[in-house]
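Form 7-S
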Amino acid sequence: MTYIKFTSSCSDKTIYINEEVIQSIMPFRQNSILSTEAGGMMFGCVGKSEKFYYIEKCSIPIPEDTRTITGFIRSVFHAKKALNIKIIDNITTYLGEWHTHPCEAFLSSQDKKSHIDLLNSSKIYINGIFALIYGADNIFKLYFIAKDRNIDLFMEEKDV
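Output:
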């Protein structure tokens, strides 16, 4: 397996995203005026001391989801279907959500609110939730929203 490494100048966490996850998301890039947002759930595992995270799998949109140019609402059917892709091994867990943006990738105020709502209403076994945003500019940005509401931005680490 090949992983893409994401790091932050503000955090000692390192996140590895399976390249297959990135490849699954790329077809949903909003590359025209009429393209609609897409999104899904991300699953993976956590290394010891919560410093290393591995995002291994993601769900993709289904017809029952609500998709508009500037919004995405995951349906109940999507959530149930996504849970079926989760590996039942007592190690893999829900880590967060991904979605596209019709412009550059950034964490909007609506994104912050919805992820904080997810933190408050979900059984999350880590100290926060990840938000992977794929912009129309073909750039991925990964955010970690902590339970204390601190937000860290992680960028793909490019080979030097």
